[in-house]
Every structure is written in structure tokens, then in C-alpha cells.
Automatic annotation (TrEMBL):
Keyword field: ATP-binding, Kinase, Nucleotide-binding, Transferase
GO molecular function annotation: ATP binding; kinase activity
Signal peptide range in chain numbering: none
Listed SUPFAM superfamilies: PYP-like sensor domain (PAS domain)
Domain of life: Eukaryota
UniProt protein name: PAS domain-containing protein
All residue ranges annotated as the PAS domain in the record: 1-59, 106-183
Gene3D superfamilies for this protein: PAS domain
GO BP of this protein: regulation of DNA-templated transcription
UniProt-listed PANTHER family: GAMETE ENRICHED GENE 10 PROTEIN-RELATED, TINY MACROCYSTS PROTEIN B-RELATED
InterPro entries: PAS, PAS-like_dom_sf, PAS_fold, Tiny_macrocysts_regulators
Length: 230
């Protein structure tokens, strides 16, 4: 059973089910009447009330109805990955309210998705990198190994910003988090030219296109690069 949390337009928790207690370690008494940000990372908690306010003022749905993976802070302070889907409702007595349905993201879903993508992308002549929502490299194809000099065994598990110049590296995780928080794609589905740093320190200008792939409760980003002539 998924965890279910109901909040009002001020972000205050009005209902939670037993599954929420089981996952978070909190009791109903702990959470009812508290702001839902108590279950969020510090970075996301600071922005959440603003997300609600903008939605109510503009009516634009950046999060409502869009499933995404987020980090949830449980009672012992641990951050766990969960898949979140939010729906908006209204009744005459209380006005608008939001229902969040959460399930723990599963590693097997990620592996299933990676296996599928490797089969498709492995034979491509252009370099391809696959990263998670944390910005961590999970796979790259032989063309990427050859072009940039990083063996897969040495780079998988590292942040993708290892391939970036300092200016871009500092901002990249923020780009991902903003996309996950708002659903607004500034880079996804668009092409642009970026500098890519090779293992030997050389920088190559590349044409980058990024797409999102989903499977059940997980999402990955696939970056395809075309090296431009010098």
C-alpha cells in the first residue's frame, strides 16, 4: 500500500494513513497539524510553500499530476528515495486540498530501465551517458569511453559534473533539482552546445541533447553528445 498524505493550501498535514507511519517512522500525532516540509530535505523544504503559493496564484500545474522521484526525510533524519504523485481536490467545506501518494523507489526498477537503455544505446556511434536524478552516472556506451577517455568501470557512480568545466559543474545539480521540483524543462528535449572535459583534461565542444526515460517508479536522464569539429 502506498503512503497517503493530505495537506491543505498552507501545506499543513490533515490526514495520513498507516503506510505513511510505517515508511516515515512518525505517528499520526507527530505529523497531524505540522507542515509537510518536515518530511523534506532542507533544500526542498525551504521552497515548498512557495510552490503551493505560485500554483494557487497562477493555476499552472508544474507538479500536480506529474509523478516524480524525491527525497523524503524520515523520523531518524535519513533521506530516502520515494516516488511522489500529487493530485488536487476541492470540497465545499474546506476548499482546495492536495493528496500526495508515495511509494519507495525500488532499485530493481532502475536496473530494469538501465538494461533496456543499454541494449538500445550500446551500439550507437555517438557518445551517450545515462544519469539518475542525483546526477550520478549509471552507464555510458563504448563511444563515450573512447571519445572522452573514461573507462566505464572508473566513472560509473561519479557525478556527471566530472565531465564539466567549473562554471557548469557548480550549477548542474541545481538544474536537476529545479526540474524535479517544478516539472519545468529548460534543457530536456532541447539541444545546445556545451564544453565537455576529457579524462586527460582536454575540453571538447559537443552538441548535447537530453531526454527523460521512465519505468514504474524511477526516472533517468539520457544525454547524447555529438563532438563538434575543432
Amino acid at each position: 500500500m502506498n503512503a497517503t498524505i493530505v495537506i491543505d493550501t498552507n501545506g499543513i498535514i490533515r490526514f495520513l494513513n498507516q503506510a505513511t507511519e510505517n515508511i516515515t517512522g512518525y505517528t499520526r500525532t507527530d505529523l497531524l497539524g505540522s507542515n509537510v516540509s518536515v518530511l523534506m530535505s532542507q533544500e526542498l523544504a525551504a521552497k515548498h510553500d512557495g510552490f503551493i503559493k505560485r500554483h494557487l496564484e497562477t493555476g499552472v500545474n508544474h507538479i500536480i499530476g506529474i509523478g516524480r522521484n524525491v527525497e523524503m526525510m524520515v523520523k531518524d533524519g535519513t533521506l530516502i528515495k520515494v516516488h511522489l504523485e500529487v493530485t488536487e481536490h476541492k470540497n465545499q467545506a474546506d476548499g482546495k486540498y492536495f493528496i500526495g501518494s508515495l511509494s519507495v523507489a525500488k532499485d530493481k526498477d532502475l536496473e530494469s530501465l538501465l538494461e533496456k537503455e543499454r541494449a538500445v544505446l550500446g551500439g550507437l556511434a555517438v557518445p551517450v551517458f545515462i544519469i539518475t536524478e542525483d546526477g550520478l552516472i549509471k552507464a555510458l556506451n563504448p563511444s563515450a569511453e573512447k571519445e572522452f577517455g573514461y573507462p566505464e568501470s572508473k566513472i560509473v557512480g561519479k557525478n556527471i559534473n566530472i565531465l564539466m568545466i567549473k562554471e557548469h559543474a557548480r550549477k548542474h545539480n541545481t538544474y536537476i533539482q529545479n526540474y524535479l521540483a517544478t516539472g519545468k524543462a529548460k534543457i530536456i528535449g532541447k539541444s545546445r552546445v556545451v564544453p565537455v572535459k576529457c579524462k586527460d583534461g582536454k575540453v571538447k565542444n559537443c552538441h548535447l541533447s537530453v531526454s527523460v526515460k521512465k519505468h514504474d517508479n524511477v526516472r533517468i536522464f539520457v544525454g547524447m553528445l555529438v563532438v563538434l569539429g575543432n
